[in-house]
Amino acid sequence: MALDKSINVLIVDDYRTMLRIIRNLLKQLEFDNVDEATDGQEALSKLRAGNFGLVISDWNMAPMTGLDLLKEVRADQRLRNLPFIMITAESKTENVIAAKAAGVSNYIVKPFNAETLREKIEKVLVHA
Amino acid sequence: MPDGGIAPEDDRIEAVVRQILVSMTGDLTAKEAVLLAELTALGRTVARVKSEIAALQVDDITGSHIPSATDELDAIVENTAKATNEILDACELLEQLQGSLPAEPAQRMQDAVTRIYEACSFQDITGQRISKVVGALKAIEARVDAVTGAANGRVAAAQASAPAPAVGPALTQGQALANGPQLPGAGVSQEEIDRLLASFD
């Protein structure tokens, strides 16, 4: 099944360098419609105002973390089924379990490689 | 208690020793004599430790060393971010040139650029680790200040003048679980995460 790479993707990270790296990796994967946010609150505003097909979010951000953003997304009637991938340095089992309980679609631990990113995106979009 | 007021925390031992000594009247038993000797020694030790702590040049630590160390760490984050962005500038230029190359070398160039992007994500991990170190330094600074303040008898005054700790909103689950990068072996790998997630399906 071919992936729709024309979807709008929102990447969320408080490190602008990381946003730039993920954006460039997505471009290599032919996802050209990419928007950015630097914390959960800004991301939530953009998600509610726009039409996104995928969120790729860091965890450790202020004031709203990626986990809190995920919970807001899953509590929102319009956004609740939006594919949501967490990319984070948080690598404790308790973090993964909390993210899964909150409804994360997939979880990538930093540092990651492009192949892992491609694999997880394909997996969540195919099952979306 | 001295002066009939509330004694600072570190003066309580001395006050207790003094009260016990005053309460001892009449002939001392052998046990009481031993206790008296131990209490006297304890009082001297407390006084010596207090004067030693008070004599430490701790103002250098809180006023100079720790702020300087945190500034240096901030500069590391800033410089690595700048260097990483320059590397990314060069990578983006290479990707623009890719279209002018034959397919095989173009693919090899893209593979190389991808590896550079992957490697550049070190800056994020480094930044988060340094933030944890800065947090630890600030905690040490606060503890050193508290210990030396106590040794200088500034505790009561500090407690009287210090504003009550701000009671902020409770941490969200996301904030409470945000620990940053783990040391090798302390966190789970991508493969373990994949297995864990699959176990929920």
From TrEMBL, chain A:
Residues 8-125 form the Response regulatory domain. InterPro entries: Bact_response_regulator, CheY-like_superfamily, Sig_transdc_resp-reg_receiver. Gene3D superfamilies: 3.40.50.2300. Keywords: Phosphoprotein. SMART domains: REC. It comes from the Bacteria. The modification 4-aspartylphosphate is found at D58. This is Response regulator. It comes from Plastoroseomonas hellenica.
TrEMBL record, chain B:
It comes from the Bacteria. This is Protein phosphatase CheZ. It comes from Plastoroseomonas hellenica.
